[in-house]
Amino acid sequence: MLARTLGAATVALLLGGAAWAQDQSIIVQSTTSTANSGLYDYLLPIFQQDTGIQVNVVAVGTGQAIKNAENCDGDVLLVHAKPSEEAFVKAGFGTDRTDLMYNDFVIVGAGDDPAGVGGMTDVQAALGKIAEQGALFASRGDDSGTHKKEMALWKDSGVDPTTASGDWYRETGSGMGATLNAGIGMGAYVMTDRATWISFDNKQDYAIHVEGDEDMFNQYGVIPVNPEKCPSVNAEAARTFADWLISDKGQDTIAGFKIADQQLFFPNAPDN
């Protein structure tokens, strides 16, 4: 893994290798949140200009992205469920995992705030209040990184919302943008990553009601798929992509992605 501290040298090396990379491409198995936010539309043309490598993104829930990568249907995994990512590497499907960037989760809801959770910073207490009031809550229900985190937060709050499935707890089985649309349509609370919320166009009277709890931290990681498990992987180009993302150039590019002057992702690749 190239060090971030060697970012300038890394980028110079990548630029020097653009000729061999020309016409190469990789598949990145990633999350709907990174795609919905517009990050890839901003970042990938810069990467391709630097390296000549084309990146094709498959945007699904984290659970499905990991399954796809285990089936050798991708060269790089970029998701946000660290325990599952570490298990992926431990099982030999990934060469290594590196922290890439972070943001946080928030709970959004209608302006009338039927459960009265507006302004709360204790997410477990807020979820408990939503359950107690039987207020509508729309969940992705799709084994995505967001859904995994949501279920962990419900567990910590002492509530099993699946016992109310189809009642006040509604599972969409959809990506983040689609779940926000469904939740707003039914007047339900929704937990979303902040980046998708900032970039989401159909807010209507919805606003962030619950935020600021350290338990809502949202870490993303990048993992090249292991060619020993998947011989068809474009390992060299995959490594180039991962190294570019954690280089100074890649980290600065991530930090520079903003909508309405709001930064959506905060780079935190380690200096090593």
Count of separate DSSP helical elements: 12
Please state the average pLDDT score.
92
The CATH superfamily label of the largest domain reads: Periplasmic binding protein-like II
Level of helix content? Answer: 40-55%
Calculate Rg over CA atoms: 19 Å
SSE diagram, text form:
Layout: H1 7-16, H2 18-21, E1 25-31, H3 32-37, H4 39-51, E2 54-60, H5 62-70, E3 76-79, H6 82-90, E4 98-109, H7 123-133, E5 137-139, H8 145-157, E6 169-171, H9 176-186, E7 189-193, H10 194-199, E8 207-210, E9 217-224, H11 235-246, H12 248-255, E10 258-259, E11 262-263, E12 266-267
Parallel strand pairs: 1-2, 1-3, 5-6, 5-7
Antiparallel strand pairs: 3-9, 4-7, 4-8, 4-9, 4-12, 10-11
Helix pairs in contact: 1-11, 7-8, 11-12
Task: Give your account of this protein's structure.
The structure is a single chain. With 272 residues, the protein is an alpha/beta fold. The protein has 2 domains: 4-102 and 218-267, D-Maltodextrin-Binding Protein, domain 2; 105-216, 3-Layer(aba) Sandwich (D-Maltodextrin-Binding Protein, domain 2). It is 41% helix and 22% strand. It has helices at residues 7-16, 18-21, 32-37, 39-51, 62-70, 82-90, 123-133, 145-157, 176-186, 194-199, 235-246, 248-255, and strands at 25-31, 54-60, 76-79, 98-109, 137-139, 169-171, 189-193, 207-210, 217-224, 258-259, 262-263, 266-267. Strands 1, 2, 3, 4, 5, 6, 7, 8, 9 and 12 form a 10-stranded mixed β-sheet that branches. The model is unreliable at 1-23 (pLDDT under 50).
